[in-house]
Amino acid sequence: MDYPPRQNNFTRNRRPKLNIPLNDNIRARTLRVIDQEGNNLGEITRDEALRLAREAGLDLFVVSDKSDVPVARIVDYGKYKFEQSKKDKGSKKKQSGEAKEIKMGYNIGIGDYNTRIKHSKEFLDKGKRVKLNITLKGREIQHSELAKKLALRFIDDLMDHGTAEAVPERMVGRSYIVYIVPGADKVRVKKRKELLDMQEQEQNAKNPS
């Protein structure tokens, strides 16, 4: 496969953009480093990691800074960026494909509801979108608020696995339609944690040890 021409950031006169954790722009003093062969070198100093990258004629790039010690890889940054771009495009294309439809009535039983939740989690974990369809028939239209509450409950029950593209405010025809894409809903997960922490604090205040 042909890759775009490599640009060695150690030899260029122009520095990379400051928002890219690459080579001399890396601020962390200690890194967990993976070399160009995929070997885990463990925790070493930034200067030592830069030296190893320079000797290999490659770049040092931080791929994750979510822990106390950032994870960096020794890579050909041009090639790495090209490969990541291809993966991202492939992922978006996969997510934008046909969604798995989940149908239910507003008065669905708890057993059937839990089964649909289980299947939805499986679909989302495989990178597939889920389409929730709650359709009201005949006189059921008078229970539109119950259908909306069920849709919101469905979204909440999947928050660790998927994120709703939009929270339903009104029906489309006689149905509530909600699309949920793979990936945890960080906003809802955070709110849930804050609520649980607050409830725990209130409980501790009522029952001090």
Overview of this protein structure:
38% of the residues lie in helices and 21% in strands. It is α/β, with parallel strands linked by helices and 209 residues long. The chain has two domains: 23-85, Roll (Ubiquitin-like (UB roll)); 94-188, Translation Initiation Factor IF3 (2-Layer Sandwich), CATH 3.30.110.10. A four-stranded mixed beta sheet has the order 2-1-4-3. Strand 5, helix 3 (110-125) and strand 6 (130-135) form a beta-alpha-beta unit. It is elongated and about 75 Å long. It starts with 29 loop residues before the first strand and ends with a helix. The relative contact order is 0.09. Residues 10-17 have low confidence and may be disordered.
> What's the end-to-end separation, in Å?
66 Å
Q: Major beta sheet, specifics?
A: 4 strands, mixed
Strand order of the largest sheet: 2-1-4-3
- What's the helical proportion of residues? 25-40%
Taken as a percent bin, the fraction of beta residues is 15-25%
Which helices and strands, and how do they pair?
Layout: E1 30-34, E2 40-45, H1 46-55, E3 59-64, E4 71-75, H2 77-95, E5 100-104, H3 110-125, E6 130-135, H4 144-157, E7 162-164, E8 175-182, H5 186-206
Parallel strand pairs: 1-4, 5-6
Antiparallel strand pairs: 1-2, 3-4, 6-8, 7-8
Structure characteristics:
four-stranded mixed beta sheet, 38% helix, Ubiquitin-like (UB roll), 2 domains, Translation Initiation Factor IF3, alpha/beta, 209 residues
